[in-house]
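The instructor's notes for this session suggest beginning with a concrete chain rather than abstract definitions. Hand out the sequence below and ask the class to guess, before any prediction is shown, which regions might be ordered.
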Amino acid sequence: QVQLVESGGDLVSPGGSLTLSCTASGFTLQYYAVGWFRRAPGKERERVAAITRTGDSTYFTDSVRDRFTVSRDNAKNTVYLQMNNLKPEDTAVYYCAANDDFSALRVGLAHYWGQGTQVTVSS
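After discussion, reveal the predicted structure:
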C-alpha cells in the first residue's frame, strides 16, 4: 500500500519540543521532495517546511524559521520535523506530503499526502 504516515504529534507545553516523523511505505521516499504543512482550526492550510530529495536545500515559513528544522533519513524512508520553542499558535494538524518537484511541493502540490498528526501547544 502506497502511503505516507505521520507520527509524533502530542500535547506539549509552550516552550517545549516535538519531533514529527513522516514515513513512506510502498514507494521510495528518497526520490521525492517532502514538505510539512499544517492546518489550524478555522484556518487555511499553511506550508511550514520542505526539504529537497537530497536534503541539500530546505524551506521554512517565516514564523518557524528559527525554531523548526527538517531532515531526512533516506535509509529509513523517513523525513523529520524537529520543532523547538513551540508556541500556542503552532497548534494544528500537521501533514507531510511528497512530490518529485520541489517547487511544486512548496505551493502545495503533492503526489502523496499523509493523514495528519495533531500537535497541541497548551499549558
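Then share the key points. Helices lie at 102-106. Residues 102-106 form the longest helix (5 residues).
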